[in-house]
């Protein structure tokens, strides 16, 4: 009982940190337009090596069917640290961003990033936890060089089996906190230290080993507004 309580506290604290991080944000205006993000995420190792590639392609819309929001192309070299669940990643991302509403104006960003990813399991493997810390170096069109820090936390709970595996339905929740490294971004423009928080909840299906699909709802919280997003994702390891 004592060990279970201790594990529950460890599991709860990171999620509490993300949720409480938005507590001091001033009242936001709700955006009732439901957006949609579609993504394909894949990774592969170089044979028996600890090195591999992690990449993703995402198409985002300001609403479910149209109004282009963003195209993301991202790829990184990964390294599994022997004797642990840690994986380090270093890579590059390309962002093409649209403008909400009838405008066809677009902007571009090139981004370098570094990840540190690790996993935990609780309650005899029934709950799987993934952590990711990400540092970004951002080269945004018409802005000065910027950095940003991100912490992502994801928890999965299988429904029809005791642990995750092929043909498993699961529930999942996640949160990601974004913090800006600079507030002065050039040409008189400023941003706040706190950038945004993403809060997710959804369902998924582990189709087979190395292939799963997820459907979720995400609420994005910034200093000025909140907005809902439908998230459809396919994850592929080969």
UniProtKB/TrEMBL annotation:
Keywords: Signal
Superkingdom field: Bacteria
Leader peptide range in chain numbering: 1-27
One Pfam family, short name: DUF2490
Stated name of the protein: DUF2490 domain-containing protein
